[in-house]
C-alpha cells in the first residue's frame, strides 16, 4: 500500500484516484471546488466530473493541496497546463523529499513553451519525475475497460515504480525513457483532434480524416525529432495510439470543440458553456511558437491556431491545406 496524492479532481484526476484506490493504495484527492470535496467524502461521487459514477471507498477528498501531498509517497499532478506551475509551486514546500512525482497532464506550458516535466523538475529539482500518457479516456478507465499507457522517465527505476503502482488487470503500463516524445505526443494530438472534429462537422468524409491523422502524426514526429525525441515513440501508444483515440473517439473534448467550430461557434462560445478545459486550444498556441523556434513546418497546427484565434474559416483552412505546393 502506497500513500498517494492526486492533485486535480477533473475527469482524469478523479479516474486515476479511483484506479489507485482500487489497486489498494490510500488516496487523497485534491479538488479546487468545495462542493466536489464535500460530495466525494459524503457520497463517494464527483458531481462535476464523472457524475453518477461511485468512486472507490479508498478515495478521500481534500480542499487543502499542501495537506494532500504531505506524507505522500507519490504525487500525481493532473491539473490543466495553464495552472500547472502555480499549483506545483504551491505544493513544493509540503512534498516529501523522497516522493515520486507523476505528471498526468497532457499539455505544454504556455509562455515558456516548456514540457511539464521540465517545469516540475525546475520547481522540485531533487525529485524523480515520471510522465504518464497514452490513449485513455477517463470514463473508460473508470469503467475498467482495457487500457494501455506509457510511463516515461529519464530514471528507469522511477518509471518501473509507476508501472507497478498503476497497473491492474484492466490498466497496463509500459515503460519508456523518452519523456520528450511522450509529452509532445500527448499534447499535440489534441490540436489534431480539434481539426478532426472540424472535418467531421463539415461532412468531409473518411478519406479526409485518414489523411489528417496521417499528416498530423507527421507534424508531431517532425517537431518531436527537432526537439530531441525518439522517432519510434510516435509509432507507439503515446503517439499514434493517443492520436487515433482522440481524433475518432466520441468522448474526446478536443474533437467536440472542433465539431462546434465547424458549426460556426467560436472558442469563446465553447468556453462560456463548458466547464472542462480543452487542452488543444492552448496547445495550438504553443505548437505554433515551438514550430517557429525550431524552424519546423506544422501546417495543420497552424491552421487550427488561425481558426481559433485569427478568425480563419474552417472550410477555407481545408482548401489552403489541400492547395499547398506539392512535395514528396
Question: Short description, anyone?
Answer:
The protein contains 15 helices and eight strands. With 328 residues, the chain is an alpha/beta fold.
Separation, N- and C-terminal Cα atoms:
54 Å
Number of beta-strand segments? 8
> How many helical elements?
15
* Radius of gyration based on Cα positions: 19 Å
Structural class by secondary-structure content: alpha/beta
> What percent of residues adopt helix (DSSP H or I)?
40-55%
List keywords for this structure.
328 residues, alpha/beta, eight-stranded mixed sheet, 15 helices, 8 strands, 52% helix, globular
What does this molecule look like?
This protein has 328 residues and is of the alpha/beta class. It is built from 15 helices and eight strands. Strands 3-2-1-4-5-6-7-8 form an eight-stranded mixed beta sheet, sandwiched between helices. α2 links the parallel β2 and β3 (59-62). The relative contact order is 0.11.
Amino acid at each position: 500500500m502506497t500513500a498517494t496524492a492526486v492533485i486535480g479532481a477533473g475527469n482524469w484526476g478523479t479516474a486515476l484516484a479511483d484506479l489507485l484506490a482500487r489497486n489498494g493504495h490510500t488516496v487523497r484527492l485534491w479538488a479546487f471546488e468545495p462542493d466536489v470535496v464535500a460530495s466525494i467524502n459524503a457520497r463517494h461521487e464527483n458531481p462535476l466530473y464523472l457524475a453518477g459514477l461511485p468512486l472507490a471507498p479508498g478515495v478521500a477528498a481534500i480542499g487543502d493541496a499542501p495537506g494532500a501531498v504531505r506524507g505522500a509517497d507519490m504525487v500525481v499532478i493532473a491539473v490543466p497546463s495553464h495552472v500547472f506551475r502555480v499549483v506545483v509551486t504551491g505544493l513544493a514546500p509540503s512534498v516529501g523529499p523522497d516522493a515520486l512525482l507523476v505528471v498526468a497532464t497532457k499539455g505544454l506550458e504556455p509562455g515558456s513553451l516548456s514540457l511539464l516535466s521540465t517545469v516540475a523538475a525546475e520547481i522540485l529539482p531533487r525529485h524523480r519525475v515520471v510522465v504518464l500518457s497514452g490513449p485513455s479516456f477517463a470514463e473508460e478507465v473508470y469503467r475498467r475497460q482495457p487500457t494501455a499507457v506509457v510511463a516515461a522517465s529519464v530514471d528507469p527505476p522511477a518509471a518501473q515504480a509507476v508501472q507497478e503502482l498503476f497497473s491492474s488487470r484492466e490498466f497496463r503500463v509500459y515503460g519508456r525513457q523518452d519523456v520528450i516524445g511522450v509529452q509532445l505526443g500527448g499534447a499535440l494530438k489534441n490540436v489534431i483532434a480539434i481539426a478532426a472534429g472540424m472535418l467531421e462537422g463539415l461532412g468531409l468524409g473518411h478519406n479526409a480524416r485518414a489523411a489528417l491523422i496521417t499528416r498530423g502524426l507527421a507534424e508531431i514526429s517532425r517537431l518531436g525529432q527537432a526537439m530531441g525525441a525518439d522517432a519510434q515513440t510516435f509509432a507507439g501508444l503515446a503517439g499514434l495510439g493517443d492520436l487515433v483515440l482522440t481524433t475518432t473517439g466520441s468522448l474526446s473534448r478536443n474533437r467536440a470543440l472542433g465539431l462546434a467550430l465547424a458549426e460556426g461557434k467560436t472558442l469563446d462560445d465553447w468556453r462560456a458553456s463548458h466547464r472542462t478545459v480543452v487542452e488543444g486550444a492552448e496547445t495550438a498556441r504553443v505548437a505554433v511558437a515551438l514550430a517557429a523556434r525550431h524552424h519546423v513546418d506544422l501546417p495543420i497546427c497552424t491552421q487550427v491556431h488561425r481558426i481559433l484565434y485569427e478568425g480563419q474559416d474552417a472550410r477555407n483552412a481545408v482548401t489552403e491545406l489541400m492547395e499547398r505546393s506539392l512535395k514528396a
